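Notebook entry, structure prediction.
Reason for the run: the old model in the group folder had no record of what sequence produced it. Starting over properly, with the input documented here first.
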Amino acid sequence: MSKATVILPSRFDNLSAGDLADQLGSVKAEIAELQSREKALRDELVRRGEREIEGVTFSASIADAVRWTLDTKAVQAEMGADWYDAHCRQSLVTTVTVRVRAAARLAA
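New structure, fully documented this time:
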């Protein structure tokens, strides 16, 4: 006996794929603007040199730490590509790329 597949409705069912792309692009632009603002605020806090900051709603603390990273190109060169591949985990990644269309750029 085969199992029934349940397809739940999505809150985006009433939107076309083009509308979804436009909304995603708009949200990503808003996020980029917010990230830029976040970086400027963060950099200013660091520039001021305080370690513990108390606001009315939020507090912030600044700490330094050492981050270790692995130079994968050096490991591949030292150990060989076969060894490297055998010791790496692989996973499928889906990427959605959103770009401003030329016609939209010209209209702006």
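Summary: The CA atoms of residues 13 and 83 lie 47 Å apart.
The old model has been moved to the deprecated folder.
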